[in-house]
Fold each of these.
Amino acid sequence: MSDSNPPIDPFEQDASETQAEESAVAVAERPLVEVENLEVTFDGQTVLKDIDCQIERGQTVAVIGESGCGKTVFMKTIVALVQPTVGRVMFDGQDLSGLSPAELAVVRRRFGFVFQHAALFDSMNIFDNVAFPIRQNEEGVDEAEINDRVRQHIGEVGLPEEVIYKRPAELSGGMQKRVGLARALVLRPELVVYDEPTTGLDPIMSDVINELILNTRRMYPVTSIVVTHDMHTARKVADRVMMFYPRRRLELDQSQILFDAPPSQLEHAEDRRVRQFVRGEAGDRIREMSQGMG
Amino acid sequence: MSEQESTTESVLRIQTAKPEIPIDTPMRRWIMQWGTAVVGGVTAVGDLAMFTWQMFVWMFTRMPRRDTVLVNFYQVGVLSLPVVALTGSFIGMVLAVQSYYQFHTIGLETHLGVVINTSLVRELGPVLAATMLAGRVGGAMAAVLGTMRVTEQIDALTTMGADPIHYLVVPRFMACLFLIPALTIVADFMGIVGGYFYSVIILGIDRAAYLHHSREGVVAFDLFNGIFKSIFFGGVIAIISCYRGFNCQPGAEGVGKAATEAFVYSFVMILAIDLFLNIVLDWVYFSFYPEGTSLF
């Protein structure tokens, strides 16, 4: 049988190896998330319009903006929980809107999502909540391995082992968020999305969550998107900040992304609205709201 | 040339001119309201049909996990058993109370059993058990799924690669489809026992005559009729309740509304399906038994 195989040309082999290396480099250099001409409309109301951006591998991007500016919709569109009305979202070169539900389910194994209120399953204890993604996505994993992985991740987010047989309702808000983080990380995702991770927490617990986000980045080669109102979080965890502005308060030709730069430049932003948001100043907002503009 | 231009301009002017329709008239408002209602209704029916189709596709392509099925079977079947048994026995007794004096006046009280049992197995057992379960099971399903929607637990399932319809709806549908007929049998049985107890023990009707007439009056088709209908009742309760839960509006009010609507819509559909199936089953019955059967 082996005689029938053509002889391998060493030059051809070198060429194919070079090609493989080049394509591997190209894949590594390609942004993990590419958003092209994104528009999302609900019941005739446009929430996002003409959004173009790319998120590089390993980057931590904070998405900030006032309530109703579309940052949560943006984040949910990236993980295909919301379908774009126009445009597309590419994850690792794959157009998510062109995938079947089964294909999407496979891609979603590469995402980790930390919800604003943790979204832990009430009907399960903490152990089963964290084990859920493993049982759902990795067939044939034995219970001993699940047990080890769950305990490891519970430990990594700084929770004591005693909590694992408690129900979510028995834990504090901060603990629930840490369980949510453990659950999001248990499949070693490439992209972790945090939806307002520090909202509703005291300053100490907020900083604990910030440290966990940083630790996650140190331990795993993850790309992160953090949607937040908390400027302390944005400055501390992000190496890039994007500020969204509500579409309804912009002229048609104005971009909805007011700021897209490292957090160190926030204070010196040219746009007055960005500086206002960063400093937490109401400015003209009260007058605008009273006139029904916001 | 200038003449041609002016013709083109006038055509364009006619084509681009907006018709002068008053913006806000009662007629326009009425048409808009009806249009919105019709579009909303058609959209909701289409959405429900898609939801049901997806559920059947999942059911026949990949069975849900055993643990999720067992939990739902326990909640629908075991936890509903006491209330269904109690309801059934009361229905049987109430039928005895209501019918006794009518039958007694014409000296046919020994035939009470046949009326109670036929009414129970054909109609009251299945419909009242389904109504009770639409409240207990359907309301709970809509509330649980609605809360999961509001607290983003359904989104969490999706992000973890689980299909919410496969994970949440299919086990509930299976539980209702298999166990509501079983619970209907329990309701029928307890109703027969309740009717017997009240007629024979309380009202003192002759036991042997009561049992003799009861046995003669109810045929196997009556039992089939009730159980067959209950399969559809179970299916419709699960589909409507799960659909309402999945499309719950935010907030406590949204969850409450979803639970209420799940019961109301399920109840209306139970009665509508009951009417339709009774017509069909009567036609089938008279095909098998052209002479019919007599209660007396």
Note: Residues 121-188 of chain A form one domain.
Amino acid sequence: MSDSFTAKIWVLGDDIDTDIILPTEYLAMKTVQDMKPYAFSPLRPELAEKIKPGDMIVAGKNFGCGSSREQAPEVVKALGVSCVVAKSYARIFFRNAINNGLLLIENQDLYDEVKEGDVATVTPGKSIEVNGKTYEIASLPDNLMDILNAGGLVQAMRKKNGLD
Amino acid sequence: MGMTMAEKIIAAAAGVESTRAGDIETVTLDRLMSNDGTTHLTIDMYNNLKNPHIEDVSKLVWIIDHNIPADSPKTAASHKKMRNFAKEHGIKFYEGEGVCHQIMMENHVRPGELIFGADSHTCAYGALGAFGTGVGCTDYLYAMVTGTSWLLVPETIRFNLKGKLREGVYARDLILTIIGRISANGANYKAMEFVGEGMAGLSMADRISICNLCVEAGAKTALMEVDDVAMAYLKEHGREPKHIFKSDEDAVFSQVYDIDLSEINPIVAKPHFVDNIVDASECQDVKIDEAFLGSCNNGRIEDLRVGASVIKGKHVADGVRFLVVPASRAVYNQALKEGILDTFMEAGAMVMNPNCSVCWGACQGVIGEGETLISTGTRNFKGRAGHKDSFVYLASAATVTASAITGKITTADKVI
């Protein structure tokens, strides 16, 4: 997790809610792969197709507000999004994302200073570099890093209990 | 230094003397609620475990409410999976009995408990002094298997209520006003605690409505002190408190708001955010296609009585669908007894079985492109009630019913 990676930025706004991330009508689909084309569809129907594995999402405040549907972070992860950087996250989404191994980074400045298509170099727990500027980012608490590094809560639970 | 209610409940659940906002505690859960929104996913994950195990099955409550009765082969299959699993493992199971949070309040929640619900509006349980919080299905699975979870102890925002709501103003107007004031993430990660002399004038229905909507300000939980009103409700439903907690005099609150209930007006939350509030009087020309009276927020007998009193002897406007959905079988039966359902049916409303209905935009009554819904539901996000290019306004039972009569957003004083 501490290795750096580069990622192309997609920019979304404030209060991106879980009905935007994945509308209710697609929740009962059998697999998260089936849901992928509909991610963010109420806001930007073209986005799911354009996001390539490794890309990152940058957003404003309160990302993931709304329902407890876990399909929301799952579908973002399934699109191959390497991380989300937002000013803040709604708490249920935050837990769900960590539990599914989706890296979330909190930063107050990035959203106001980058544009879509910019490429960032992300070093988890340390910094994000973009357009020649370095943004320091905090590390998550150890218990959350353990979950992320295992690839999610279920994997962490299996690892902890010596099941793998 | 004293502790808040939230800190006390978490400390008790963690088996520690004291805890502080910002600490992370490992807690033992008292109850675990899950509904048909995500339980099928939990079961899939459970079945993939190498040593599947349920720590204490007596704590689990599973409720089919979101899409009941099933509206497609897909949901029928998901329900069947949930029904069979519940039966096989002896899990307390409800189907078609009502919206999950109403069922929990009527039958399970006890003051002092720490409850996980795989649904964001689990914070409703604070109306009985319980710490309810919404989680996803992975957190739910972990708690189901281990009996425990971890919690970041939240800071608490305290709301001191004084005075009384005026005639024609409801708890829903109050909580929408508060969310508008502190914003959709104003209580993110925090507990919202409601106290003060103004509480005495609020019924259990009012209190559930207030706590239920706190997640729309981002809150982790909502909490109210257990008083005579709460004790009477518990007694009526045959339960005793687990423990009654109150915040200490010297507890630390991150913010304190004083709210004078007499200053609250009828409110509408405009599309597409719950904190996008205006006085209902400012929206009176907005034409509607559908009105919805129901949900875990506003489908109790008290809300139906308000709606019935507004519409009695009148009729739903031409071209408007008016859905009335009691929040539980108990509410439905009571409304039957009081003649309230007759009133709605005679007025041209559609009375449905207890379920989540159009509030979650999948069960029934979804709206089409360009259409407008006025709703007592929980959310008005873009696309929440159907087509991505449709519009949801949130308001009280009185305003929703009055709007169904005129076909445009209308406060009840204009039709009575």
Note: The mean pLDDT of chain A is 93.
